């Protein structure tokens, strides 16, 4: 790890069917299904509302104010991938705009997740190329220092290995390690199986207190009602 | 105050007609009418633009990362209420999602105001169930520790008693104490009475300097014009 | 500088044709064309998405929680201006709402850029009067202390002189000094001249690595590929 | 509540013996003894390390950038009091310096707790007049708008009534409501009673796992050891 | 302004006697004497307590993560100067450590004021070379892009021209423009002239309410006392 | 990775001689020697100034507001270790106080690095048990949910594996992966070898411009001097 100046060309991607299936559940369900780990910091926000995607991670490690490696990672993108960009120190510069988005899209990328800034958000919205970022910034970057592609990275508090599954929507971004992907998918499916029934009950006025049988444990925990 | 493990079932709600009428003025006018107090911190943002609501507060005090009491407060909701959720320490976890929203809505709640995170925002937006929160987060919560319902709470810098009026819109969230509700309503109405006329004058090019007769006090305060 | 209590009535505005032309390029291109300076802090966000404007700056320096000078600056607005409001200490209060917007618009202002809060954002959105601000807040302000109009100000990290050009869009806000406006316009035009061609190439799958001939310098910098 | 322009001269202070005794336990123990409520935000920091005080609260509500009421509250201070200053909107200005500290000290105040800024910290340190504040700032304030003295205030997330007990040290600031003071004192004393013995055991190498008999509940919760 | 790649060798420094005299008053008094402008953001903190300095500004504009120009500015330092370092985008990297401090000190610099990070703070403290900074960070910087020396810069919200006076102490950092230096010094001296007498009165228990004759204006403003 | 409910008892620690030797260089030199990676966020601050330590990491993953696993990790500490505590979501609660410090110290721990809060800082300072933390907070924690010990964790933006070397001082905290420890030590030693000579030169007035032969590259980069 911390290999600088290295591009790994061969990575083991999570099976596409699994990566795609995870996306349908959304980040909240997937995060629960994982045991409540793997979530990126809540400052990671989508540049427009409504996008919900999943894909396999290709990672890139960049230096503050330097987006040179974005062009290097572009070559490593395969259809179905999501680029995850980490920076070696906090930075809000706009590393990514409409030209790079055009290139990423042409390579088959589904989204960008970047722990820094992005620009040309109006055009990116028109292109419907979703980005989750820490900031929106007009500030451009230089191309002076090399970083790495497809090494493990820490992006917005989450550890991401190349080939992991990224699930992102309006609620945030989750990373599912490749080795946990199948089992997380199963757990997510199990969670959702009876959600429809629950929703119907709650909509009819049944209380969670009764549906989940919470009255007794609450009383045991000492809850008192006062009239 | 600071009663832990207590649910007050009988609270004195502000009269519905007053609570409803306050909502029409919006948070900025109501906040002015109160003498510029009672405003929640500006980090409280709506999950979607355009919602404008008012209602009577039912309050819930929760612990960080624990949403057990959300189910307890659900039972205390009456039509026209807004749930105000405070946490005993800073937390951005997603305490509330589409299932709880379904339940709250079925009970007659008009909105949730929470000094923490919320999730399933896409679904909440489709349901048109408005939420004002500090964060959006996929992170779920546990159900291990009891808090309280319908005790006074500090939510995002504002003190809220059960039965107070909450007014929330794109500009923010204001709490009007029950004892001040009628007088605040009167003051708000008085404020707005001549706004239409003012707006027309300003639109026609009349300056606030003249309309509000500010030139003399400004000169007295020492303002100098330089050509 | 730091003249308090002064209103400069005669300022040298950048030529309207130049100010207007700069707006078409957007803040990111203009910022690059300036050599990556002049950008306001990324916390300056538009109250609604999609606005893209440029204009000549009239500046106002206000005190925390006091918007008296907003009425003074209104008189100095000419068609094509953008008001740039700076505060002498950090403040999130709502200095500006629909009445002032009506007045500013009637005077010909195109936008407000304020390093503080704004309110009535729903109405401002309906009026399509764009504002870039640090916060949205219902909190009103008093009218007790005089500041200055059309003095140099520091607004959200950027130095703005009256008559400079402001370019603002979804990516942020840039200030172009009057003396640099023509040359920045030329540089921006040059930058964009061949963007269309580049975009087409990238869309067809050509990599930036090849288009920008980066492979050799990357290799020289030590980049290694591992299979 | 939210009375503006009011000074309450007669408040019910917690008994001095209780207020003093609570201070000896420090904020962490007192906070635990209260059931983990009443703590101010962690951004409240002492201007110098090592101070540990308690006292009865006299409260003051001020407006952003305006310290007029600091002179009003000074008259209401009695020996053993701690002044708790809240602001109606976020502000970092320096409301308090060496002259006011001289006055407060002469009146018998033990400390200032302020949800804003303070200045002259070098002199205050030499005077050994402790202050817990959100910021340190040279910025002075005006005297234009009246607030209130001895009304309930929200200070750094905590609700403080006049006469409550404030306990402050390097770990933070806690407010103990008057009605809970005796029982909190008892609980704090009970907590500390066997701390010495525990400390000795732990120092000798006994593990908390054994001392608190945690091994069984941890195993029940599913904890697995892997060699 | 915004000249990039330029070093101004000849700047007009404020007279040394004035710069030195201002330092004796400290940042709070000087800031008041200026009319409450010119203060840097409160996030600018000294790396150790107790330092109080003043001097003439030599300025340097750097790029994020790049400290090359620190070596360029070193040559422009004259005895009695304070280096003011601004960055073109937010950055917390450690631009400055013990080697540069040794060089700056040898050139006669009294302090560094930097809107970014600093490192080797233990050694700097031992050397008693004071630094006011936004952050402390081990992160080093590269030397790839040129900036400017002795151009006007915006540092932590304050506009600083080369030759201005910097006054820094535990309360913060103020910049006094050269043209205002003499008059600010006079105003500061006037402010302090009768502070000793005031302090003595307050120490003896006289209230500010009486000393400043505030009772009448407070009553006029509507302040009411309740027993 | 992300094993929840697991305690790894056998970890491969970096050789003690290497871990100890790295500490002598301090975090800035070590961070440079690693190629400028591995640094924790700058919000991680020591609770008292002057501590400089290194040691082998034992890691613990905790839930927000829950310090149960702190007792579990205590048993895994061996002399020379530093405990690195990560939380699954942002939290400022005080997870650690004087009792746990007594236990950790008895087990041979040299320090705690925690991405959350700590309390009893006065006692910890007297004990000279150093802690680097995100916050200081009186707020206690519960013991309800199990996490993990000696799994890889993300702590304050840095990835830490059990057995890695932690170097911490007033400048911050760096994690050196076990596999890089020897080579980082060599690089750090090489960096410092000629620092003494450099320091002497700079102290005598030689400029970095000359010592590092920067004049020519600066000129090539376009730097212009103006008299």
Instruction: Give the ordered list of helices and strands of chain A.
Output: EHEEHEHEHEEEEEEHHHHE
Main sheet of chain A?
Answer: 8 strands, mixed
Q: Give the end-to-end Cα distance of chain A, rounded to a whole number of Å.
A: 61 Å
Shape summary of chain A: elongated
Oligomer: homohexamer
* Total beta strand runs of chain A: 12
What would you report as the Rg of chain A, rounded to the nearest angstrom? 20 Å
Binned, the helix content of chain A reads: 25-40%
- Label the structural class of chain A: alpha/beta
Mean pLDDT level of chain A: 95
Greatest interface and its participating residue counts: A-B, 38 and 39 residues
Low-confidence stretches of chain A: none
Number of helices of chain A: 8
Q: How much of the sequence of chain A is in beta strands? A: 25-35%
Structure description:
The structure is a homohexamer of 227-residue chains. Chain A has 227 residues and is α/β, with parallel strands linked by helices. Helix content of chain A is 33%, strand content 25%. The first copy, chain A, has eight helices and twelve strands. The first copy, chain A, has helices at residues 16-33, 68-76, 98-107, 121-127, 181-193, 195-203, 208-211, 215-220; strands at residues 6-8, 45-46, 53-62, 81-87, 111-118, 131-136, 148-149, 153-155, 158-160, 165-169, 172-176, 224-226. In chain A, strands 2, 3, 4, 5, 6, 7, 10 and 11 form an eight-stranded mixed β-sheet that branches. In chain A, strands 8-9 form a two-stranded antiparallel sheet. In chain A, helix 4 links the parallel strand 5 (111-118) and strand 6 (131-136). In chain A, helix 2 packs parallel to helix 3. The longest helix of chain A is centred in the first third of the chain and has 18 residues, at 16-33. The radius of gyration of chain A is 20 Å and the shape is elongated. The termini of chain A are far apart. The mean pLDDT of chain A is 95. Chains in contact: A-B, A-C, A-E, A-F, B-C, B-D, B-F, C-D, C-E, D-E, D-F, E-F.
